Amino acid sequence: MSPSKSIQIVPRRSPERGQADHGWLKTFHTFSFASYHDPRHESFGALRVLNEDRVAPRTGFGTHSHQQFEIFSYVISGKLEHQDSMGNTEILPRGALQMTSTGTGISHSEKANGPQEVHFCQIWAAPRPGQGRGKPAYFTRYFTDEEKKNRFALLVAPDNSAEVSLNREDKGPAPVRSELRMFASLIHPGISLVHVPVGNGQQKKGYIHVVQKSGHNPGKAGGATLRVGSQADGPQVELREGDGAYLSYEIGAELRVENDGQGVAEVLLFDLE
Questions:
Q1: CB 112, CB 67: distance < 8 Å
Q2: CB of 181 within 8 A of CB of 199?
Q3: What's the half-sphere exposure (Cβ side, CA atoms, 13 Å) at 265?
Q4: Domain Pirin N-terminal: where (predicted)?
Q5: What domains can be seen in the chain, in order of their start residue?
Q6: DSSP classification of residue 44
Q7: Taking the CB of the first residue and of the last residue of the chain, which one, N or C, has fewer CB atoms within 10 A?
Q8: Cβ contacts of residue 242 below 8 Å, gap of 6+?
Q9: Distance separating alpha carbons of residues 216 and 26, to the nearest angstrom
Q10: Could you write out the three-class secondary structure of the chain?
């Protein structure tokens, strides 16, 4: 019998993330961002930014510019109002995934629309070599809770893969000019999911993040509880809302994610080269 394939799991605890409370914005940073700098947490594979933001009603980020990075927003609750220099204006509800390939440069604003706080994850990915100075592009996708219920739904995939269409109206995953795939799931209590990482690399990386739906809490994370480990018998790591973990897969390893808590866990999972 061949030996079991394992996964190295390094937790990134919620209270250890960079954090700031600006009144209108309450935010956590998984990686170094703005005034938060930690050389141990700069990036992982193509994943450069994973911010969990809460923006107060009728406030937000004014017009500002970006270039080169792939930037996408995953809306958890409330409505995110987006405007940009390409002429795109949208109000994005829960379930929306908005992708901007900033390329040679764009300007945009993001605000909370209406009387409710907007809670979303802002994610940046580094483009593949030679792809950072392309023409800017914009895509929006919508995914229902049912599509994510007890399965890993593919929300973002490389633009050169067979999984995506460059048609803006397509209902498949949003295209990214990067070696990154992003999945989302709503895992109900007692459910265990298995994920096989996708990609061509011989040594796979990944990152998992449990959305902090229990509210802004700079202290110990609460809410749903996951157990994350390899499909084979081996060590497991407990993750609560706001926690994440770096993943390094041996070739052939499979990830098991089990919800052994009482609430539904909303999970983002990244496959990285």
A1: no
A2: yes
A3: 36
A4: 19-124
A5: 7-272 (2.60.120.10)
A6: B
A7: N
A8: 13, 14, 15, 17, 28, 52, 210, 211, 212, 217, 221, 223
A9: 7
A10: CCCCCCEEEEEECHHHCEEEECCCEEEEECCCECCECCCCCCCECCEEEEEEEEECCCCEEEEEEECCCEEEEEEEECCEEEEECCCCEEEECCCEEEEEECCCCEEEEEEECCCCCEEEEEEEECCCCCCCCCCCEEEEEECCHHHHECCCEEEEEECCCCCCCCCCCCCCCEEECCCEEEEEEEECCCCEEEECCCCCCCCEEEEEEECCCCCCCCCCCCCCEEEEEECCCCCEEEEECCCEEEEEECCCCCEEEEECCCCCEEEEEEEEC
Strand arrangement, sheet containing 7-12 = 7-12, 244-249, 204-210, 265-272, 180-187, 153-158, 174-176
Q: Which helix (H) or strand (E) holds 238?
A: strand 236-240
Residue 269 · residue 183 · CB < 8 Å: yes
Q: How is residue 145 written in tokens? A: 């809770």
pLDDT tens digits in sequence order for the chain, 273 residues long: 345 678 999 999 999 999 999 999 999 999 999 999 999 999 999 999 999 999 999 999 999 999 999 999 999 999 999 999 999 999 999 999 999 999 999 999 999 999 999 999 999 999 999 888 899 999 999 999 999 999 999 999 999 998 987 776 677 999 999 999 999 999 999 999 999 998 655 668 999 999 999 888 888 777 888 999 987 677 789 999 999 999 999 888 899 999 998 899 999 999 998
How far apart (Å, rounded) are the C-alpha atoms in residues 131 and 149?
34
Identify residue 183 by its one-letter amino acid code. F
